[in-house]
Amino acid sequence: MEPLWNSLFLYLSRNRMLNAAAKKWGLRFGAAQIVAGTTIAHAVAKVKELNAKGLVCTLDPLGEFVMHPQEATDRFNTCINTIKAIAESGVNSNLSLKLTSLGLDIDRELCRAHLQKIVETAKQHGIFVRVDMEDSPHCQPTLDLLRELRREYDNVGTVIQAYLFRSMQDVKELKGVPLRLVKGAYKESPEIAYQQKMQIDKNYLNLIRQHMSSGSHTAIATHDHRIIAAVKDLVKQHQIPRSQFEFQMLYGFRTELQQAIAGEGYTMRIYVPFGRDWFGYFMRRLAERPQNAAFAFRGLFLK
Questions:
Q1: What is the pLDDT of residues 73-94, one digit of tens each?
Q2: Do residues 203 and 211 touch, judged by C-beta distance below 8 A?
Q3: How far is CA 128 from the centre of its chain?
Q4: Could you say which of 183, 197, 208, 235 has the lowest number of CB atoms within 10 Å?
């Protein structure tokens, strides 16, 4: 049975009233420990610090489930300005984004136009764009838009979640596309997703093997040291070049392990979220592991 705290935090992550209120609160409940500020300038400064430690990054302007065209346009402009800030500052960073923040739930063509302009601008500056995967209703629309963009651009990829039954077939069909592989962070039905950690972990490793064996670039996004060790064994056994894969972790989590992996000569990319729309992201991080709730309780006493 799913733990009560997990269901609670996932429920709160989708609460529109709380998300709206959080934009006015500023970073609270310890969120500043895992969200790199509310502005592009704050985020770029954090990326500079991480680069200096031998870590590369991907910047994520937070925001999702947008329901008004002007808000989608505002998020689009933030992505464009983030690309320009990366280029002007010279930091080593990609861009990550969510399609719902660009208006996917409002107007597909509006979202597509936003995404194409972002990818085109990023290409001009030599920057890779990662389209984050969201909950299951948005999975197929995300993959459809990705395929349309990949006909013209090679600097765009997406994310596949190991807890979905469909993911192995998706990975096979996305041969040659740079993928970030994750376990998954949304609440999904037992009809479409594995519910047990052991099942998810097994499928996760199978997805990693499948994508790597096809010669495709693979980003392994996990804080699980057992998965990391298994990947190291896999690439050694099959002589997979380090240029074909990278490890990824979230900003603020397991920082010593991040440094250790980078110190071993592997590419270690840090997912650096920022922005005023931080509440949904923060709640999902609390849902993933009970230890993360310590951030919230400490944050209750922060002014």
A1: 999 999 999 999 999 999 999 9
A2: no
A3: 13
A4: 197
Name the phi and psi angles at 41, rounded to 5.
-60, -40
Structure tokens at 159: 């994310």
- Specify the pLDDT at position 78: 97
Range list of H helices, 103-254? 108-124, 139-150, 167-173, 197-213, 225-237
Contacts of 288 (CB under 8 A, 6+ apart): 185
CA-wise closest residue to 51 among 90, 83, 24, 18: 90
- pLDDT of 268: 98
Q: Report the 10 Å Cβ neighbour count for 165.
A: 13
Q: Find the helix or strand (DSSP H, E) in which 286 lies.
A: helix 279-288
Using 70 as the pLDDT threshold, list the residues of the chain that sit under it: 1-32, 64, 278-280, 282-303
Element (H, E) at 221: strand 218-221
Give me 72's structure tokens: 């989608």
Show Cβ contacts of residue 196 under 8 Å, excluding neighbours closer than 6 positions. none
Rounded CA separation 203/19 (Å): 32
Domain ranges of the chain: 36-277
Burial classification of residue 206, based on how many CB atoms lie within 10 Å of its CB (0-12 exposed, 13-18 middle, 19 or more buried): middle
pLDDT for res 231: 98
CATH topology of domain 36-277: TIM Barrel (3.20.20)
d(CA 159, CA 136): 12
pLDDT at 29: 54
Tokens found for residue 151:
């006909």
Interatomic CA distance for residues 50 and 70, integer angstroms:
33
Asked whether the CA dihedral 161, 186, 137, 14 is positive or negative, the reply is negative
**130/54 Cα distance (integer angstroms):** 21
Neighbours of 183 (CB within 10 A): 20
